[in-house]
Amino acid sequence: MDRSRPGAGATALLSPALNLHRALAARGLDADALFRRAGCDPALLRVQEARVTNRAVRRLFEVAEEATGDPCIGIDVGAQFRGVAMHALGHAWLASATLAEALRRVARYTRVLSEFWKARLEEEPAGVRFTIAYGDRDAYGPLSRHDAVLAATVKLARITYGEAFAPVEVAVERERPACARRFEQWFRAPIAWGAAAPSLLLRREDLALPLATANPGVAVAAERIAADYAVRLDRDDVRARVKRELLGMLPSGAPSQARIARELALSPRTLHRRLADAGTSFVELLDETRRDLALEYLRRGDYAVGEVAYLVGFAETSSFNRAFRRWTGGSPSEFRRAPAGTSAADP
Q: Do the beta carbons of residue 113 and residue 179 sit within 8 Å?
């Protein structure tokens, strides 16, 4: 199923709307009253895991633009962003070893935040592009919505990387507005107006820099929670369900497909078929999960290579070394010495 083209029942996590509430209040407006005008009870902002429809989020931004007369309010919303508004995904971002790891997690679990758009990472000659892909343009509503996502992504990057962070380029769908200067001041990068899709072009070296906020144990634990939450959103999302089981089982050794199938109350044949329908296989998911965890642990440097091998389900370090060379073209020790050589986008 293409998650960037959801049906009418698509929902979004409400807690990020707290940043819109803050942006309105900072202008001296009655944010609670404006939320009620949009049909959203502001008390729900304090309810863990509260979700609202895409229509409600669209209406919130429409009311915000009407009340402020500011089509660029999305920049202010993004500037208010805090990682904790992103459920466990925010904690996983803040504890990631690099910005590349953080962005990969957002791309992997976008639907925790919203079922109406999907983050995508793609390699380009000039860097790595982070793109927001969504379905029905008319149903999406004001362009300030994706302005807020781009601005929030840069805000989170500055929290973990430092205030010096800036993209190479920012692409937005809107034509150059009267408030264009605010885009330039916030992003500190050239703006490509009238683009086909909203995106950020990012430097590979920035994405590979080890972050002082990194904590691999917290990052992995938070990712497990995000995976579990994604499963609860859609019990038929077999890829997320398998990923969740693998994250929990790997430290005890690589589980078999039959064992994972038992945990999911499926036959091995049914699991194989459903994964094929999702465009993947058990072997590919196992390999992907091992690789991602190994890179996370090695970047932080808290574990010896033998310990990392154990944590990602290898009984022997030699087997881990062979797999790691297949993943990256080098050994775990070489990777540790040259982390900036890693790729930011998922293969």
A: no
